[in-house]
Every structure is written in structure tokens, then in C-alpha cells.
Amino acid sequence: SIDSIIDILTLATALMLGFLFLTVKSGNKKGNVFLGLFLWSLSIEVLGVLTQSFSEELPSIPITGLFTILFLFLYVNQTINNAFKKWYLLLFIPGILINCIHYLNIELFRVFDYVFNVLLLVYILKILKKHKNNVSDYYSDLEHKTLSWIKTIVFIYLGFHALWIIEDIVSFKNEDIIEYFAGLSTILTFFMVYWIVYNGFSQSEIFKNKLFIVSKKEEEIEVNNANTLCEKSEKEYIRLKTRIQTEKLFTNRALNLRNLSVILEVKEKELSKLINEHSKTNFYQFINGFRVEEFKKLLAS
Fold first, then answer.
1. What is the DSSP-derived secondary structure letter of residue 98?
2. DSSP structure class, residue 282
3. Contacts (Cβ under 8 Å, ≥6 apart) of 25
4. In this structure, are residues 34 and 74 in contact, taking their beta carbons and an 8 Å threshold?
5. Taking the complete model, does pTM exceed 0.85, yes or no?
6. I want to staple 35 with a disulfide (CB 3.0 to 4.6 A). Which of 75, 221, 228, 248 is the partner?
7. Closest Cα to residue 117, out of 98, 100, 89?
8. Given pLDDT bands bounded at 50, 70 and 90, which one contains residue 232?
């Protein structure tokens, strides 16, 4: 059937793309490993659906979306350079328990599956929202750094759960509607995998490095000086602003808060505080203000 062909394409692509992320060398190796595991876990789910479509007598694969979404959560945290916390390991326990009792078909655990997934997806959206606010205070170029493409995946999964909940309710009255829901789920899964493929090829740089990278030396300096940071005066702010203008540091497209602090020989947190307090804007708006003014001068000349 057409659904089976789409599932096979989805399965093959997810397996190959997952292998690519697991083996590729990059500055975000751990993050790419979690993304590869996300794709492989998703491919196992698709395989389970595919085997059941061929024959209901075949044993179903005891795997749930708990691990799939969890790997996506871990990928997001690694990519924005959040430290891996030990309590994250506890998030694997629900998936292990539910998979162990997969054949019991207890409705209570099915409800728990839905609740756990939705809560984790909402938490991912919360992390992405916080990241979007932070990235404006750090980078002068936001392209490919807001991770907005991941939101699409999260919303698709939220759509899945809405469909599954409706399916469980409607199936008691009309089983024919289930086929339409299954077809829609197949198409959305196919789109989700190829959405990752699209971003992987058109925006490959977002998979190469983590965001907010801190070297060990810089991290030690930042920690040692955390309690000695002092407020800079308006005079200091004007001095730094003048240097940015005269040396045209804003012309560097890859300029971010960290490398600017190194050039100006000012602690990163001090520089951020100076910009926020005296310019009343974030780093992104502050640097791009210089770029707009420079562009006006070029037009006038």
C-alpha cells in the first residue's frame, strides 16, 4: 500500500541519517549522537507499525515514544551547551517500565505514556523559549542559532498525541476513522524525518558546533572572578562603544559576546551588563545598530 511505501522510505532514511549523525565528527559530537539515537528510536517505532501492517500475527515491537522524545530532549540540551545532569537518567525509567509491561495492555500505563510525553515536549518548548531569549544577548547574528526547526518537530509530536487521544476515544464508536488517523501519522512522520534531512543539508553548520561554547580556561577565569565583578561607569561604556565604532569590530559577521569581550579585554559578564544597562538593548540589537548606521553612511557616500 501507499502507507507501507511511505513507511519504508521513512524507515530507510531515518536509519541512514541516524548512522550519519552517530559517526560524523563535529564540535557537537554528543549532541549529534543523541540526534542519531532519536532517529533510530523513531525508525524502530516505524518498523513496529510496518510489521503490523504486513501481518497482525507478527509480534509487535515493545518500544514507545518515551525514548524517542527523550533523545530529542537530550539533543537540545547538548546543542545549547547545557550540562548533562544526573537526574536526566531517571527519565529513562518510565520508558523501561512501560516497555517491560508492553504486552499487558493496561490502559493506565497508556495514559501515563501520553502524559509523560506531553510534559517532556512542553519542557522542550520552554527550554527553546529560554534559549531564544539568551541567544540575542550573546550573538550578533541569529541565523540558524534559535533552533526554531526543532519546534516544528515538537509541534508534530504534540499533534501525534492529540490524534492518538482522539483515536482512543473515537475507536469505540467508529473503527474506520482509525485508518485516516494512521495515514495522517504516516505522512507527518515522513515529513518530520525529511525536515531533519532538509535542515541537515541546507543549514549544516547548526549540526557542527554547540552554542555558547566555553573553553575550560575561560570557564575557570569566569568562575574565579564571578564575585569580583564591578559595575562600569558611563565613561567606560562610551570608551568601549567608541572602540567598537573606530575599529569597526561590528563588521565581523561571526561576532559574539565572548570574542568581543576578548578583543576589548573586558570580562564577558561585565560587557553584557554594560550593554544592557547603558544601551537598554540586548547584544544582538546593540551590534546591529552599528551595522545599520554604517550602511546608511555607505548609502550616503
1. H
2. -
3. none
4. yes
5. no
6. 75
7. 98
8. very low
